[in-house]
Amino acid sequence: MMLRPICLSLTLLIISVTLQAGQIPTKIRIRAVSRDAKVIGENVGGARITVLNAETGEILSRGIQLGGTGDTELIMIKPRSRGGRVYDTDGSAFFETTLVLEWPTRIEVQAEGPLGFPQAKQKASKTLWVVPGTHVLGEGIVLEIHGFIIQVLKPAPKDFARVGVPLEVRAKLGMT
């Protein structure tokens, strides 16, 4: 029983000494995707990505996710297997940043979009630990945004509805 506390103390000492080596660049890739749809790409204005230190609230990085909506076949048609590639395809939108970390850091990653349709903007966030020098690339950190883009085509904003007069309503509906 006495061996456990000694092993734990030794492990913590090794981690502490290792982490005092200095600031280590750590690459992080983030993707905002639409719930049960594709990546939020430039065609809808992209998504605003913010990376915060979850303990202090300090903004570590901020930017806009740009690129395409991904491979329709992989995302929408083919069955998915655990750990399989879905979003990491040529031209697929993402935001990548390099965090300079001294020790394991709990971060909060936030996504807000689609930026091109302010009336349809939604937010998503995720909290996780990042270890210095352990890059998060490939599929990256995936944030799923729920919602629809609804564009009213008719009536025009200047048109008024009148009691007893039929009103034509037309809208275009898309997923965020």
Structural class: mainly beta
Instruction: State the low-pLDDT regions, or none.
Output: none
CATH architecture, by name, is: Sandwich
What Rg do the Cα atoms give? Answer: 22 Å
| Integer average pLDDT | 87
Beta strand %: 35-45%
Give the overall silhouette: elongated
Q: Helical amount among residues, as a percent range?
A: 10-25%
Strand order of the largest sheet: 3-2-5-6
**N-to-C terminal Cα separation, in Å?**
55 Å
Count structural domains.
1
Oligomer: single chain
The helix count comes to 2
Q: Largest sheet, described in full?
A: 4 strands, antiparallel
- How many beta strands in the DSSP annotation? 9
Describe the fold and architecture.
The protein is mostly beta strands and 176 residues long. It has a single domain, classed as Immunoglobulin-like (Sandwich). It is 13% helix and 41% strand. It contains 2 helices and 9 strands; from the N terminus they run H-E-E-E-H-E-E-E-E-E-E. The chain has helices at residues 3-19, 72-77, and strands at 24-34, 47-53, 59-65, 95-101, 105-113, 122-130, 136-145, 148-154, 170-175. It has a 4-stranded antiparallel beta sheet with strand order 3-2-5-6, with no helix packed on it. A 3-stranded mixed beta sheet has the order 4-1-7, with no helix packed on it. The chain has a two-stranded antiparallel ribbon with strand order 8-9. The longest helix has 17 residues, at 3-19.
